[in-house]
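> forwarded from #structure-qc
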């Protein structure tokens, strides 16, 4: 659901200035799904940190995924981070996305965090390695700037750490 834009032209003195403006369709329902506390990585195994579930009948555009780690060793091995589609819910703690704009429309998407039973993995959309030290917040680059989730589908953020480390994560989007 990329925002459509158009150019408008405005004359200032003898200059014409082009401005890129959004086409206002309907109200956008922006949200943020964030871990409520630090999530401990499962050592040498994948662990889903967050999962976003699109509501039935709605396409969700995920526009940003961020993750940070609390590692302290500058010689620690990198952590594998994946953004992927998942086909099952797994077992986790429910976590509701929060509105980031003051609209009257309720958020239909749901979420889960800190999985104890892994969901079934499907398409891996992004895979990269991130160093665990220093608590830097890493924005995860998304294909084409966003990922669309079809009605009632799931998007997960999972990690595979070679050593004990904690993380916090956020998924931002709109429906």
């Amino acid at each position: 659901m990329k925002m459509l834009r158009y150019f408008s032209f405005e004359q200032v003195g003898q200059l014409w200035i082009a401005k890129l403006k959004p086409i206002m369709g309907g109200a956008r329902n922006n949200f943020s799904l964030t871990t409520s506390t630090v999530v401990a990585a499962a050592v040498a195994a994948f662990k889903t940190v967050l999962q976003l579930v699109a509501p039935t009948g709605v396409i969700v555009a995920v526009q940003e995924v961020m993750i940070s780690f609390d590692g302290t060793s500058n010689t620690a091995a990198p952590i594998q981070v994946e953004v992927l589609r998942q086909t099952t819910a797994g077992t986790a703690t429910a976590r509701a996305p929060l509105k980031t704009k003051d609209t009257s429309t309720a958020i239909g998407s749901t979420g889960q965090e800190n999985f104890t039973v892994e969901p079934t993995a499907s398409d891996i959309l992004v895979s990269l390695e991130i160093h665990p030290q220093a608590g830097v917040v890493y924005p995860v680059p998304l294909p084409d700037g966003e990922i669309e989730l079809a009605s009632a589908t799931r998007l997960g953020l999972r990690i595979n750490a070679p050593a004990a480390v904690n993380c916090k994560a956020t998924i931002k989007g709109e429906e």
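QC bot note: Residues 20-25 have pLDDT under 50 and may be disordered. The longest strand covers residues 60-69.
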